[in-house]
User: What shape does this take?
Amino acid sequence: MIESRKVRENISVCTQLLARLRFDRGLLKQLFREDIMEESVIYQDILQKGELRCKKREAVDLVIRQLKRRFGNLPVTIEQKFPNLALTQLEDLAEELLDFQQIDDLVNYMNNLQKNEEFRISRS
Assistant: This one.
């Protein structure tokens, strides 16, 4: 009855999301076409956020592995900061670490990142 395909898809997705809280997944697959869910804006947003989280987690793991291979164990206080960095910051760090000669270079880099963030926040 709803004419707009986009509106129909979004209502269907919302219904499916709520129904999954109560009903068996098999039943829902029988009732709803999977392609409608995949085409919806909500589903695409969820998928995109999941992909971004996955990329970020992979970047954190890669940077830590590279740094540990180069310097051995890292200061815990520094290692704990990596998950809080944005993906672009992790990518920049992955390039910069190639120039680090000692662990102090990493510590200085991370401290500068933190100072720049504090400055950016205070200037806002």
